[in-house]
Amino acid sequence: MLRIERVSHAYGSIDSLRDVTLDLEPGEILCLLGPSGCGKTTLLRIIAGLETEYDGAVLFDGEDIGPVAAHQRGFGLMFQDFALFPHLSTGENIAYGLKRLGLRRQEIGEKVQSLLKRVGLEQFEERDVASLSGGQKQRVALARSLAPNPRLLMLDEPLGSLDAQLRDQLALELRQIIKSAGLSAIYVTHDHREAYAVADRIAVMNIGSVRQHGSPRQVYRRPSCAFVARFLGLKNVYSTSDGRMTGLLSLAGGENWSTGSSILIHPAGIRLEGGCSNDAISAEVTLEAAIFRGESYDLTAATVSGLRLSFALGELPVSIGGKLKVYIMPGAIIPLDA
Questions:
Q1: Dihedral angle, C-alpha 306, 308, 313, 315, nearest 10 °
Q2: Which residue range forms the structural domain that includes residue 58?
Q3: Last residue of some domain: 203, 228, 253?
């Protein structure tokens, strides 16, 4: 339903987007994921019609919407700071856009009640928005965005101002609400865990370009390049020319790895047991660091050659400085693009 074709944009002499091509299917949530300054918000503003100077085309249902004014596109936009009207109640904030559409009072009231129920705020219609918690304000802002039945919902870092625990909880709620409304959505974030929770598909961006796109599982399991791997928190990225890799790569079929390229040893493929796989590579390591995460430990261990591996285990197998044998499973060594 949405097609972004070779869109480029610059602020003066600085490129903010470079030849970006993406699409969005009906009912899909596409997440634009990347660090600050990568171009994701600029792309969102172009789709919304708030940024009009760009090369390329933005098509909606096959129509080039470049000439269509932002307020005529029928899109909903939710900002990080929520942009609620402090002098209006919760219900009045939600009703604001409906009044501008010229709907009857009874119809507006029914719509507001329906939306309050959808976002779990049935008892808050008359509540002053200044008295609401951050999570409640986020729900009000979402309900207001949903009120005009947008053809496309766009969310720009909607959980960015909330604490980590609340973000994890509301990310799942956001996905459920968007899906229950049957909407297509574009969701901007810099937090890969948030993207995993919300998105059907992720486009990882850096320096104005899309470096990889696919389902959350595809992007996590098979990152395309060193930037994507590191941005997703995967630390075991090495050059094949690193002397510490020689022994490991020879066991993994060293003739298949080109000199000077990058590889990832995926932490999900590092285990304490080789299982039934005859192709698992074993390595003696010394535990150097362990961080308790509640449900697991994040471990750093060094091989005899000095290669450091990061991975997670449910229990702490030995104390710091202790030795253990780990197994790198087939498929855990992944070639990365330059």
A1: 50
A2: 2-228
A3: 228
